Amino acid sequence: MIRRALQRLAGRHPHAAVTAATAIGAVTRRWAPDVEPAAIRRMLPDLSDAEMRSLQAALWTGWLRLRVLEAAMSSPTADWPYPRLAEGVAVPSLEPPVIVAGFHLGPIPALGILLERLPGETLVVHLSGPPRPGLTMRPVGGDRWGRAADFRQAIDTLRAGGSVFLLVDANELPATVEIELFGQRTGLARGAFALSRMTGAPVVPVAPRWRGSRVEILAGDPIGPGEEGEMAAVAARWLEEFIRANPQEIGRLLPHGIWN
Amino acid sequence: MTERPESGRDRGTVVAAVRDALIALWPARFGDVAIDEPVSLGDAGLGLDSVDIVEFLLECEDRLGGPSTEGLLAEGPVTVGRVIDHFAGP
Question: B12: distance to nearest CA of chain A, Å?
Fold first, then answer.
C-alpha cells in the first residue's frame, strides 16, 4: 500500500515522493523486512546485530526510494528526469572516449545525470528504461548474438570518440572474467574490460548513493587499458571499497547473480 | 541486410584468412576442433562468447579489408561458413 501510494505520488510530484519515501522509510523502519542477512554477512561479517538492523532499515528506505525513481522515470506526467544532486557535490567530469562501468548499487537511474553531461555520443546498454535525451539507449541483447551486436556497437561508438555505459556485475552471462570480492571468487562481465583492451579507452567505475533525499555520484580512477583480469581486479577492489563505505546502497545487488 | 562485397574474392583465400584469424587470436584453443563451414562460432561449435565473436569478426575484417560484419550479428547465429560467405561474396 505504501509503495503504491508513493508510486502514484511519483507520477505527479516526484521530488516530493522521494522526500516522502525517505521519511516513511525512517518511520516504518521497524517493519523493514529481513533482506538477505546471510548475503550481507558474506560481505560485511563484522556487523553487530544492531548495525545489521540499522542497515536493513536503510535498505528498506532505499528500496522505497528506488520504486519512486522507477515510477517517476516511466511516468508520462512527471517532468523530471533525475533526482536532485546533493548540495555542494560535483558530478564527476569524464573525458570521452570512456567506458563508464556501473553496478547494481544505489539509485542507478541517477547515473543519467553523469551520462547526459558527457560530450559526444553516449551509448547506454541497459536492461530496461525509457528513452533519455542525448543518450543512445540500447536494450541489452537477449542471447549471445544479441550481446555480440551490443558489443560491436559499443566498439564502433568508442572508436568514433563516444562513450559507453554498461553494468559490469552481471556474472550470470557466459562472458565473464573471474575476480575476488570480499574474499570470494566470483565474476564480472568482461565486456567493459575487453572494450578497453580493444579500443584503448579507459574504464571508469561509478556508483550513485543517496544523500538524504538527494543523490551523489562517485567515480573511481580510470582503469586501463590493460589485461582484462587485471582491470577487473582493480574494478572489484573499487566496488568492495564502495560497499564497505556505503553498505546502505547494496539493496539491488543482493539478489543479483554476483553473490550466487 | 548484411553488407556484401560487390565482387567475390577467391574463396580459398577467404577460408585461409578466416582460419588464420582464429588461430592468431587463440593459438592453442582449437587444436582438436574441426573448423568446418557448418560449425557455429557459439556454444554448439567453437564456443566463442559474445566478446570473442566480435573480436574474431573484426580480425577477419582487418585481414580481408572489410566489408563490415555488423549485419551478420543482426541475422542471428553465425557459422564459419556464413563468415566465409560474407567475405567471399556471392
Answer: 27
What are the residues facing A167 on neighbouring strands? Answer: A102
Segments of chain B scoring below 70 in pLDDT: 1-8, 90
Instruction: Return mean pLDDT, chain A.
Output: 87
pLDDT-derived band at A78, boundaries 50, 70, 90: low
Distance CA A165, CA A157 (A): 11
pTM: 0.90
SS3 assignment, position A110: helix
Q: Among all residues of chain A, which has the CA nearest to that of B43?
A: A144
Q: Cβ contacts (< 8 Å) between A189 and chain B: which residues? A: none
Nearest-Cα distance to chain A for B48, in Å, is: 9
CA closest to A191 among chain B residues: B51
Q: B79 to chain A: nearest residue by CA?
A: A145
Q: Where are the alpha helices (DSSP H) in B1-90?
A: 11-25, 50-64, 70-74, 80-88
Q: What is the ipTM of this complex?
A: 0.89
Are B51 and A194 in contact (CB < 8 Å)?
yes
Q: Residues A68, A6: contact at Cβ < 8 Å?
A: yes
